[in-house]
Design goal:
The chain has 351 residues and is α/β, with parallel strands linked by helices. It is built from 13 helices and ten strands. The chain has helices at 8-16, 35-48, 70-84, 99-112, 129-140, 161-168, 183-195, 212-217, 245-258, 266-282, 292-303, 322-332, 339-350, and strands at residues 19-21, 52-55, 90-95, 116-119, 145-150, 173-179, 203-206, 220-224, 227-231, 235-238. β6, α7 (183-195) and β7 form a beta-alpha-beta unit. The longest helix is centred in the last third of the chain and has 17 residues, at 266-282. It comes from Bradyrhizobium arachidis.
Length: 351
C-alpha cells in the first residue's frame, strides 16, 4: 500500500502530529494474553484522547513474535478500537526481524487494517547502511513506513545522517520516530531528512523519552550552504505515553500551542525536567533500562489497568530499587498522573 491510499483524515492526523502511545501487553500470571485488560488498555488510550496506537512495538514486547501472539495482539487492538470509537485513529504496527519476517509482518498488519509500520532495525546489527537501506526499501514496497531510531541500550543500531537522508528519500516513508536518547543523533536524523528535501512529507515524531516536552515545543534550525531551515517535531510515539496518558495529552497540547511563538512559558520549559524525572523511574535509567517495560506495567497495575507486571520473559521485571524510585516520582509528581481519570472510567473499560 502506498501512503496516498491511507484514509485522508488519518494521513492528515499523522502529518500534522498526534499522540501515539506504544501499547503494552497485558498478561495473566501464567504469561498468557489477558484479553480483558488488553482491551481495557486500548479503550483507555482512546478515551484519553490519543490520535492512534502503536502495537507490536518494543513496549508490546518483541517476544510476542516467538509465542504466536503477533497477529492476535494486533487484531485485538484493531477490533477494540474500531468498536470503541468512530473518530479517525492512526494504527501503527511494529515490524521487526530480517527482511522476510518484516515483509510478512507488514502484510499481516495491512490485512488487519493498520495504516503504517514502525520498522525496528535491531535485527540488522552488523549490516552495512547499504544493506539496511535495501531492507527498508523492500519493506516500504508493502506498507507506508515510520522509521525508528531506537537507542542502542535496548537494541538499536547507530546510523549516520547520510543514512537518514537516504531513508527519508524512500517515497513510502511518512514519519520517523526519533528515539536515540541522544541530542547529537537526534540532530543527525533532522539533518538527514532536511537534506533529502523530505520535511514536508516525513513527519518527525519524538521517541526521546528523556526530553519529551522540549522536543515537542522547541524549534530546530538546520543550516545548509548558509540557508536556514526551521523545523519542529510534529508528535510523539512513546513508551512513556503508555502511562498517565490523559495527562500526557494535555502536555502535548500545551507544547503544540507554544510552537511558533517568540517565547515559551518558563513553567512549561521546566515541566520537561519533571517529566524526565518520572521517566527515569518508569524506564529504570539507573539500571540501563533493564526494567523499562516492567516499570510502565507497575504504574498500570497500580491503576488497575493491568493485573500484574508479568512479561513474556520471566527475567524481565523491576530492578532492585526501581519500585522505590517509582514510589518517589508518583509522590513528588502526583499532579502529573491521571489516576482520577482512570478511577472514574476503569469499570467501563474492563466491561
Amino acid at each position: 500500500m502506498h501512503h496516498s491510499q491511507i484514509n485522508a483524515d488519518v494521513r492528515k492526523l499523522i502529518a500534522e502530529g498526534t499522540v501515539l502511545p506504544a501499547h503494552p501487553l497485558a498478561l495473566t500470571a501464567e504469561r498468557q494474553l489477558d484479553k480483558q485488560h488488553q482491551r481495557a488498555l486500548t479503550r483507555y488510550y482512546i478515551d484519553a484522547g490519543s490520535g492512534g496506537l502503536a502495537v507490536g512495538v518494543h513496549t508490546t514486547q518483541f517476544a510476542i513474535r516467538d509465542v504466536g501472539l503477533y497477529r492476535p495482539v494486533l487484531e485485538l487492538a484493531a477490533e477494540t478500537a474500531a468498536s470503541w470509537t468512530k473518530r479517525p485513529l492512526a494504527m501503527v504496527a511494529g515490524l521487526a526481524g530480517p527482511t522476510t519476517q518484516a515483509v510478512t509482518e507488514a502484510r499481516t498488519a495491512l490485512d488487519i487494517g493498520y495504516h503504517a509500520g514502525l520498522l525496528s532495525l535491531a535485527a540488522m546489527k552488523g549490516a552495512s547502511e547499504d544493506e539496511i537501506i535495501a531492507h527498508c526499501t523492500t519493506v516500504a514496497a508493502e506498507i507506508p513506513l515510520v522509521g525508528f531510531y531506537l537507542q542502542p541500550a535496548v537494541g538499536g543500531v547507530i546510523l549516520s545522517s547520510r543514512f537518514w537522508q537516504r531513508f527519508a528519500a524512500i517515497d513510502n516513508v511518512i514519519a520517523i520516530k526519533i528515539a536515540p536518547f541522544n541530542r547529537y543523533r537526534t540532530l543527525d536524523v533532522l539533518r538527514g531528512v532536511a537534506a533529502a528535501g523530505a520535511l514536508d512529507r516525513v513527519a518527525l515524531y519524538t521517541g526521546n523519552d528523556d526530553h519529551i516536552l522540549l522536543d515537542l515545543m522547541l524549534p530546530f534550525d538546520l543550516r545548509d550552504n548558509g540557508v536556514t531551515t526551521r523545523t519542529y517535531f510534529k508528535g510523539g510515539l512513546l513508551g512513556h505515553w503508555s502511562v498517565w496518558t490523559a495527562s500526557a495529552i494535555k502536555q502535548f497540547e500545551r507544547c503544540k500551542a507554544a510552537r511558533h511563538k517568540d517565547s515559551v512559558p518558563a513553567d512549561l520549559l521546566a515541566l520537561d525536567a519533571r517529566v524526565t524525572d518520572c521517566n527515569s523511574a518508569f524506564f529504570d535509567v539507573a539500571n540501563n533500562f533493564h526494567g523499562c517495560i516492567a516499570g510502565c506495567h507497575e504504574i498500570l497495575r497500580r491503576q488497575g489497568l493491568m493485573r500484574g507486571l508479568w512479561c513474556l520473559d520471566p527475567n524481565e521485571g523491576l530492578s532492585p530499587g526501581q519500585k522505590e524510585e517509582i514510589d518517589r516520582v508518583t509522590r513528588e509528581h502526583a499532579d502529573l498522573s491521571d489516576d482520577a481519570f482512570v478511577a472514574a472510567n476503569l469499570s467501563k473499560w474492563l466491561a
